[in-house]
Amino acid sequence: MPVTDFQLIIVGGGPAGLTAGLYAARARLNVVLLEKGAAGGQVMNTDWIENYPGFPEGITGLDLAEKFAAQAERFGLITKLCEVKSMDLAGPVKKIFLEGGETLTSQAVILATGARPNQLGIPGEKELTGKGVSYCATCDGPFYRGLEIAVIGGGDTAIQEAVHLTKFATRVIVIHRRDELRASKHLQEKAFANDKIEFIWDTVVTEVIGSKEVEGLRLQNVQSEEEAILAVKGCFVLVGIRPNMETLPLEQLDNDDGFIITDKEMRTSQPGVMAAGDICSKNVRQIVNATGEGAVACLAAENYLSSLN
Questions:
Q1: d(CA 281, CA 291)
Q2: Same domain for 110 and 247?
């Protein structure tokens, strides 16, 4: 068997990667987790989480991320803060090339690089993220009980989430830059039949208004260029997500537009390579299923390593 630096390398320190690291460290594998920033991933940017089991009063994203990291560290997980430049995952020796010229090798790899929501890139969006600007209706919908909110987008996700949000909000205004939706006909019919949903067509949002929290949106009609202010307490930006695939050798992995395809054991098409969390091709992206996938991916990696011996 070729000599490698590690048995297992985990790329990405979000909930999936940290859970995989926890399981690997407890199993006494020779493992390292690679993360370019603070461990925790996108959960660090989540103001308040109420739907993760074990925290009946809720918990901030930062606190939850710190607990994930502390638990994995308690069992001896080594985290290396670095930036991955590229990878070669083919063959029995997996190679991870780091910024600065360092190369790490392992027998198995878990990819947990995550994904990120597309943003509008408009004034006020970044400043009010977590304070009325959200990218996940399932996560944050319950915070808007009895309020009027907006959904930006016209695809399947936007319309499906708009319908979901009517369980909480008194009014959901869907803002779409075109004069018709891109969502499937079935979803369109559900939305049009819901008397809590209204539509503003041919319109883009140019600014999120508010000092400490969202107070409204500045709108512009793409045809007339007329501007207007829409008073809402929440704004859900649902215009797609992007996989963090820049360092992945997609030519070596079956993927769906950059999202890695796995089997139910989180194994990819490349032997010895597992994937977990938001980088995987799937419909549901929640913290709780990311952690579950991280555990399953680590167990699959253990089985793979055992088969080598």
A1: 16
A2: yes
Residues 15 and 102 in one domain: yes
Domain that holds residue 47: 6-117+241-308
How confident is the prediction along the chain (309 residues), in pLDDT tens digits per residue? 678 999 999 999 999 999 999 999 999 999 999 999 877 777 876 778 888 999 999 998 889 999 999 999 999 999 999 999 999 999 999 999 999 999 999 999 999 999 999 999 999 999 999 899 999 888 899 999 999 999 999 998 899 899 999 999 999 999 999 999 999 999 999 999 999 999 999 999 999 999 999 999 999 999 999 999 999 999 999 998 999 999 999 999 999 999 999 999 999 999 999 999 999 999 888 899 999 999 999 999 999 999 997
Distance CA 93, CA 309 (A): 15
Do 200 and 284 belong to one domain?
no
Calculate helix-pair angle for 15-26, 61-74, nearest 10 degrees.
Answer: 20
Domain membership of residue 283 (yes or no) is: yes
> Whole-model pTM?
0.84
User: Structurally, how many domains does the chain consist of?
Assistant: 2
Catalytic (active-site) positions: 136, 139-140
Closest among 280, 269, 248 to 97, alpha carbons compared: 248
Domain boundary among 188, 206, 237: 237
Residues whose CB is less than 8 angstroms from the CB of residue 208 and which lie 6 or more positions away in sequence, other chains included: 122, 123, 124, 125, 127, 128, 132, 133, 214, 217, 218, 235
